[in-house]
Backbone:
DNA sequence: TTCATTTCTTGTCCTAGTTCAATGCATGCG
DNA sequence: CGCATGCATTGAACTAGGACAAGAAATGAA
């Protein structure tokens, strides 16, 4: 049950079995049905969720009421609005919603503090996780600015090969920053080579 | 001399004078003339630089040879390509260049390791710095996707009030992801109310 | 001070992507 | 099973912003 998450957290730092045990004891297993909103705008985000199974999206709602998807998380990914709310006591501006029935390990800020006290090496692992997250976001910003819609879509397919089968097209359009109609046009053009 | 950087690093974690002394002893002071490239694409980024004075830009070059500015750093900001190169041994895809004569404190990966051993509380401070960085990048991604060029420019002016006086317009255009010509048109339109 | 180089502005034409609307297609639910 | 709601597709008209070109203004080096 814990093998997935232990593998994930050990990717850049090696832990003793004992340390992993402490880590695992601080996680809360949770199943959530699809279309459940885990975090509303204006709430404090008091969790980091590791996706064991399922698919989640994180999104903003812009001034005109349009959703902009910032992140999809599938198996073995973390999702949270860690960036602001946990450490700054600012309410979140994002929503987090399950798109499929999900299984999570939920990790609370308190548990995280406890973990860092009991096994300080985890501080490092979580810092590196954060760095990778930053790198990915930065890369996405670059793509958003400098690539055409078609290029972005092809890149998306390559990067998330399973996701285009699992989530609705208009979510992918929202992630790419284009209209659902235009994505549809791109797809028909690609299909005809 | 160290007051600026100590204030910066103490923003979310409180340190003993002794700890700050260790930190300061590991920094290297450096002055760099304007238009100097600190990091070329393909190199390893082996520093994190704290800007004491001056202005720096970090940018990608896209497939068509266009520069896309990811970040400006002015006084009291950190700049690095920390996200990839330091921890993954991957060469950097970005350039970092001074736009004005600059004073820095340079912080190397080795010094950072040494610091974390001698004063582990810094691990936490640097993790939080990273989180803020992620939050800012995420916010920018949202703006890039969901706002018009005019809105982005006005937001930029509000957020970096001094920067529009200090750097060339076409750099700002590149940061906003629009052409320099179009920014000029936006500016004349704004000027006429 | 002068000349050269870079930066900014303005105009014209062009295109990638949007908006709106209509239609057919799934799929989930009573 | 039938119906309703959401989803994808397509087309037509529109627009934000880009590309190119040429001139004006600013900066800087000698």
Residues:
């Amino acid at each position: 049950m814990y093998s997935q998450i232990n593998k994930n957290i050990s990717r850049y730092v090696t832990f003793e079995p004992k340390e992993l045990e402490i880590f695992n004891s601080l996680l809360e297993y949770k199943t959530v049905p699809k279309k459940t909103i885990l975090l509303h705008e204006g709430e404090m985000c008091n969790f980091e969720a590791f996706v064991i199974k399922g698919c989640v999206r994180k999104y903003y709602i812009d001034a005109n009421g349009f959703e902009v998807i910032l992140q999809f998380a599938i198996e073995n990914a973390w999702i949270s609005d860690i960036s602001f709310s946990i450490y700054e006591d600012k309410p979140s501006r994002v929503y987090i919603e399950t798109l499929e029935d999900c299984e999570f390990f939920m990790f609370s800020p308190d548990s995280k503090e406890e973990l860092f006290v009991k096994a300080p090496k985890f501080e490092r692992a979580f810092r590196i996780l954060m760095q990778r997250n930053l790198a990915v976001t930065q890369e996405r910003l670059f793509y958003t600015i400098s690539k055409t819609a078609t290029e972005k879509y092809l890149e998306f397919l390559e990067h998330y090969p399973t996701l285009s089968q699992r989530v609705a097209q208009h979510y992918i359009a929202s992630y790419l920053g284009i209209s659902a109609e235009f994505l549809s046009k791109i797809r028909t053009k690609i299909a005809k080579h």
In short: The first strand of chain A starts at residue 28 and ends at 32. The first helix of chain A runs from residue 3 to 9. Chain A touches chain B through 34 residues (CB under 8 Å). Chain A has a mean pLDDT of 92.
